[in-house]
């Protein structure tokens, strides 16, 4: 399981609302995500969702507090151990087009993580077989490996992003607004794919979205963030049907 304990992260800013020049983006975050669990992370713009995601991807270092996978804190690790930790947590971003290199083919994009994690698939034959498997898993054709991102629709591009996130067989995938850039009908297809993959692979998700109906469709539990804190967590049904915190209730009633 992934465990986040008392994580605090501040940023240097020109001037914050509180009058000083430190902005507290994460303010004592506690969170646990069990194996195979899907956790929704919701809250208004600027509440710290992406900062938390970036911290779990080790792109931000907490000022205080710990992040651990089965008790192992990544921030003290080096070399192979750090690489092994990184393999376990992968991310899918909002805009597949912006986050994919337009000069690379879909096959190159999906298999790029293997260049850093060399031990995973040792021979070219193994990598080719795994690439075909990944394309199939996300509903793309083997011939799609040769195409460049601009030859795909938005939904197909997001499938490429998901295949890439799966390339290292992670235990947890953080999805930061993965369907927000897509048409509604395409959103449903991608969400159904995510649900299928979760059932098939037993992978955990942290699913970040401002769209509560989307969150409801894919998560077992929900954490509500407000000003850098988690103010409520519970089963998705409880949080939606019986919110405990007035902010959660307001958030729920503000969305269709
Ligand atoms: P959104 O729903 O709009 O994506 P969010 O919940 O993901 O919002 P974050 O991107 O985590 O919010 O930002 C949290 C706060 O931290 C915001 O006030 C933001 O301006 C600030 N912030 C984030 N990254 C930095 C940075 N590198 N430097 C300074 N401030 C930052
Ligand atoms: Mg964000």
Report a brief summary of the structure.
With 256 residues, the protein is an alpha/beta fold. The chain has helices at 49-56, 79-88, 96-99, 106-111, 113-116, 124-137, 154-166, 184-201, 212-218, 236-241, 246-254, and strands spanning 2-12, 22-33, 38-42, 64-69, 89-92, 172-176, 204-208, 221-226, 229-235.
Proportion in β-strands: 15-25%
Q: What would you report as the Rg, rounded to the nearest angstrom?
A: 19 Å
Distance between the termini: 33 Å
Are any ligands bound, and if so which?
adenosine-5'-triphosphate, magnesium ion
How many individual β-strands?
9
Helix content: 25-40%
SSE arrangement, N to C: EEEHEHEHHHHHEHEHEEHH
Strand order of the largest sheet: 5-6-7-3-8-9
Note the main sheet: 6 strands, mixed
What form results from the Cα inertia axes? globular
Helix tally equals 11
| Helix/strand class | alpha/beta
Q: What do the pLDDT scores average to?
A: 93
Stretches where pLDDT is under 50 for at least 5 consecutive residues are none
